[in-house]
Structures are given as C-alpha cells and as structure tokens.
C-alpha cells in the first residue's frame, strides 16, 4: 500500500465554497523535476458532492481530463459546471456514463450544453475524444436517458473490456468490466433491465497509485430481498490491491461485498451519497464490511467534495468539511 497523507480543511471559506480548487497539492513538498517521478504534476481525482448521485472529475498529470457521470438532472448545472470552472477546466477529453440510471447521467446533458444551456455556443462541453458508455439502449428508459441519448449521439463510443484511456505521463484509466464482460474474458449473462449490473468499472493508475470506480456495480447483495448478481468479486480478482476504492451504488447493501473488499483491500473508501436519502444509503451492513477492512471512509454527505491527489507514489486527500472525531 502507498503512503497516505490526509488533510482535512475546516476553514469557513472552504466549507461555504464547495467549488474551491486546490491547484497543486504537492507544491509544498519542494520536489525538483528530477525527483518528481513518474510525473511532475499530480493526478487529481475530485469526487463531487452531487447529493444522491455520482460525479467524478479526473485531471491527469499530462492535462487530460475525464468526467465520470454527472449526477441527476440539475446537478450538472448547479454543481458540475461551476466545479469545472473553478478548477480551470475548459475542456473534457472524455465523458464516461457508467450506466443509464438518472442519478448518474441526468446531469451529463447539462454539462454538454454548458452554462448557458444552449447547444452550439462557446461554453459547450462536448468531449474532445468521446463520450464513453455501455452502448445499446436501456429497458428502463427515462426522460434522463432519452435526453442523454439524443444529445450525446454523435459522440458516443461503446466501452469494451480492456479499453485504455491515456491521461498523460503514464497515468491511465482502463475498463475492467462493462455489460457483465470482464477484461480477462470472463462473462456473466445479465438481465436486460438491470442497469446496475451492466456498469462500467474503471481502474485508474498512476505509477504505483491505484483507484477503482464502477458506478453502481453489484456484488450479490440483496436490497429489499432482491438478490443481485455478483460482478464485484470477479472485478476484485482482476483489479487486486488498490489504494482507494470508490464504493459502488452509494454504499448500498447490493455492493461492497466482503470477498471484493478482501481482494482490493483499500486503504481509503469514498462514498458518493446524499444526506438523509430515501434509500438508506449507505447501508449499515455495507459500512460494517468496509470498516472491518480498516479502511478510512469519506462520504460526500458528511465531508462534501473530496479531492485526491497522487504523485504516482504517495497521495493526499483533501475534504471540504470534516469532523475530527470521525476521521482519526
């Protein structure tokens, strides 16, 4: 496991300004270009606070950018776009829709349209490379999906297991699983209306730093008595040890199964979840499984936006708000 330095910010200005960027988290280390391996700039991962939903911004050490999901409708405009502006991001190379649930893709159309919400103007955020999704359609079609499909059509590219997106200076994001198909050739047949099971899982690496995120990928849990298919365990066998895990499905009972956690053995787990949400996320049983690994937990409902920065060796975590008693 990597060396971890956790920094918690309690200043009133930051707590009231969730879009405050941290431009170079490693500048205080006094490193020269010769000692900055594998890259002079950090890999930055921002887990945005989009209430009950998911949105993550990746800024590679070489300047490449990737937005993974954008929360539900409304969050793209009021949270994601202001965050991009504050972080100085004026171009997205890739946008990834992990699956077609509204709390993941609802904000993508707003991001594509830009701040003025008009297509064809200077502030549009259509991806320079592609909009990556699981392809096809969904049997759970919603207004969010229909709007997404219509606007994103010229930019869509179907994800395939093993697909790699270079983020510069050796950093990359790799598709481990999509549509129940895995990078090592294994496959689990899925039901056509199970969006969560079809999720894209991405392993993000930079030097020895490893981060895994997979939307709402299921792990065999039984929320409401309904047993999901276990895709996490195979993903965990492929991914192996990680530094940071982005918990799937907002910490639901359906995900973060014990075998998966043992395979990945994360030092830190981040959970994107809304305060007092109607789904009971994160589930107490899922939290117990995560806590049993000894991992430090960050949650957007308590900590606000979470920023991770890695130089390819160690990493730092910056939380918008936090409680000393909760994070020893």
Task: Give a concise summary.
The chain is an alpha/beta fold and 328 residues long. The protein has helices spanning 12-15, 75-86, 102-105, 108-113, 143-152, 232-239, 258-264, 284-292, 300-303; strands at 4-8, 43-47, 56-59, 65-68, 94-96, 130-133, 156-158, 164-168, 171-178, 181-182, 201-206, 209-213, 244-246, 268-271, 296-299, 306-310, 315-319.
Round the Cα radius of gyration to an integer and report it: 18 Å
| Envelope shape | globular
Strand residues, percent: 15-25%
Query: What's the SSE pattern?
Result: EHEEEHEHHEHEEEEEEHEHEHEHEE
Unreliable segments (pLDDT under 50, ≥5 consecutive)?
Answer: 8-38, 323-328
Q: How is the biggest beta sheet arranged?
A: 9 strands, mixed
Q: Please report the total strand number as a whole number.
A: 17
Number of helices, where a helix is a run of at least 4 consecutive DSSP H or I residues? 9
Q: What's the end-to-end separation, in Å? A: 19 Å
What integer is the average pLDDT?
Answer: 87
* Percentage of residues in helical conformation: 10-25%
**Spatial strand arrangement across the major sheet:** 1-17-16-2-3-4-5-6-7
Secondary-structure-derived class: alpha/beta
């Amino acid at each position: 496991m990597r060396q971890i330095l956790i920094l918690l910010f309690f200043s009133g200005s930051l707590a009231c300004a969730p879009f405050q960027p941290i431009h170079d988290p490693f500048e205080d280390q006094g490193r020269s270009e010769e000692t900055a391996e594998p890259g002079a700039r950090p890999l930055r991962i921002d887990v945005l606070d989009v209430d009950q939903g998911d949105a993550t911004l990746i800024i590679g050490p070489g300047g490449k950018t990737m937005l993974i999901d954008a929360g539900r409708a409304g969050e793209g405009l009021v949270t994601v776009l202001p965050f991009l502006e504050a972080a100085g991001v004026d171009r997205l190379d890739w946008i990834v829709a992990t699956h077609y649930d509204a709390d993941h893709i609802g904000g993508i159309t707003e991001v594509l349209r830009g701040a003025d919400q008009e297509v064809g103007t200077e502030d549009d955020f259509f991806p320079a490379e592609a909009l990556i999704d699981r392809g096809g359609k969904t049997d759970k079609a919603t207004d969010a999906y229909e709007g997404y499909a219509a606007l994103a059509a010229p930019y869509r590219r179907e994800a395939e297991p093993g697909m790699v997106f270079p983020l510069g200076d050796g950093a990359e994001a790799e598709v481990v699983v999509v549509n129940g198909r895995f990078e090592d050739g294994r496959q689990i047949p899925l039901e056509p209306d199970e969006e969560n099971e079809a999720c894209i899982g991405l392993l993000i690496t930079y030097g020895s730093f490893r981060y895994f995120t997979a939307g709402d990928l299921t792990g065999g849990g039984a929320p409401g008595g309904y047993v999901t298919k276990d895709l996490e365990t195979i993903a965990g066998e492929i991914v192996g040890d990680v530094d940071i895990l982005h918990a799937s499905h907002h910490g639901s009972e359906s995900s973060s199964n014990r075998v998966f956690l043992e395979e990945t053995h994360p030092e830190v787990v981040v959970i994107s979840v809304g305060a007092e949400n109607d789904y009971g996320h994160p589930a107490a049983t899922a939290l117990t499984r995560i806590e049993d690994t000894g991992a430090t937990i960050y949650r957007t409902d308590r900590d606000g936006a979470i920023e991770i920065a890695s130089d390819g060796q160690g990493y730092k975590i910056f939380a918008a708000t936090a409680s000393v008693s909760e994070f020893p």
